[in-house]
Write a structure and sequence with these properties.
Elements lengths: L5 E2 L7 E2 L2 H69 L3 H10 L6 H19 L16 H23 L7 H17 L3 H14 L5 H19 L12 E2 L5 E2 L4 H32 L5
Antiparallel strand pairs: 1-2, 3-4
Helix pairs in contact: 2-3, 3-4, 3-5, 4-5, 5-6, 6-7
Length: 291
């Protein structure tokens, strides 16, 4: 059997090589070459295309962070808008909410409708918004009421305009509410002809989705016909004064005086009826019986 030949490595002591050791050395060298080639290829990829991919990854991460920030910002804006709407109690404050949060769906229309309702309620009660009876300057003058009705109509008209710009029937409920408000403002101002137009518009747009609202609008149109048929009663100050003497003048009595006069007449009629009954009773007793 042939013995392995001696070999020398870098001038060191002579060692004996074998086929198994040679194979291992080849495997180690091959592995080192493969690792080295992979390292060189990775470094080359980083130098050529790696930065582009890293930049794309960075852009995707930034886009995700921006999208998340935008969603949170939108949610905060919606919460703020509804909070301010709930806390606003005056027409001026509600107008400010409508201007500030016009981009939030529904907030501007609701703010304007609420402001118009507050003014209509103020005209009905005769008190300024936010004030109670007895407060200084709380009572509205006729000029103040007329001005409030004009402002209420403007609020309702703006709400109708914003709601009509919404696609589909999403804005129909608010549009119908605004039209009803315009009709109420016109009725309060005595402009019955102007009240017909918004009510007829309600009948048109509420069909077929909201038939009860169409019926309500038709009922109000019929009531307008009845209101027009009634004659207006003059004020007591506008009634004429009838002269009955040189120094005396007859004035129309107040409602309390008229009530007392009617009650006195009723009492006199009742007394007369009772006296007539008392006189008829003795005559009936004195009549002799027939034989």
């Amino acid at each position: 059997m042939r013995r392995p030949e001696p070999s020398s490595v870098d001038g060191l002591d002579t060692v004996w090589s074998s086929p198994t050791m040679d194979d291992r050395l080849k495997q180690v060298q091959t592995s080192d070459l493969t690792d080295s080639r992979l390292n060189h290829e990775f470094v080359a990829w980083l130098k050529t295309s790696g930065m582009n991919y890293l930049l794309m990854l960075l852009l995707v991460a930034c886009a995700f962070l921006a999208w998340d920030w935008w969603n949170r910002k939108q949610g905060e804006a919606i919460d703020t808008a509804w909070t301010e709407l709930a806390s606003a109690t005056s027409p001026a404050a509600l107008r400010g909410v409508a201007r500030t949060h016009a981009a939030v769906d529904g907030v501007a229309e609701l703010s304007l409708l609420t402001a118009g309702d507050i003014l209509l309620q103020s005209v009905r009660s005769g008190l300024r918004p936010g004030l109670a009876a007895g407060d200084e300057g709380a009572e509205l003058t006729p000029e103040d009421k007329a001005k409030s009705l004009v402002e209420a109509d403007a609020f309702f008209a703006e709400a109708v305009e914003l709601a009509s710009a919404r696609p589909g029937f999403a804005g129909k409920p608010m549009m119908i509410a605004g039209l009803f408000g315009r009709a109420a403002a016109a009725e309060g101002a005595g402009r019955l002809d102007d009240a017909r137009t918004p009510l007829e518009k309600v009948v048109e747009i509420s069909t077929p989705e909201y038939p009860p609202l169409a019926e309500q609008a038709n009922a109000r149109l019929e009531n307008l016909d009845g209101i027009e048929a009634h004659a207006s009663l003059p004020n007591q100050a506008d009634l004429p004064v009838i002269a009955v003497g040189e120094e005396e003048a007859f004035t129309v009595p107040a409602a309390d005086d008229l009530l007392e006069m009617f009650e006195a007449e009723d009492e006199e009629a009742a007394e007369a009826t009772s006296e007539t009954g008392d006189e008829a009773a003795p005559e009936a007793t004195e009549t002799p019986a027939a034989p």
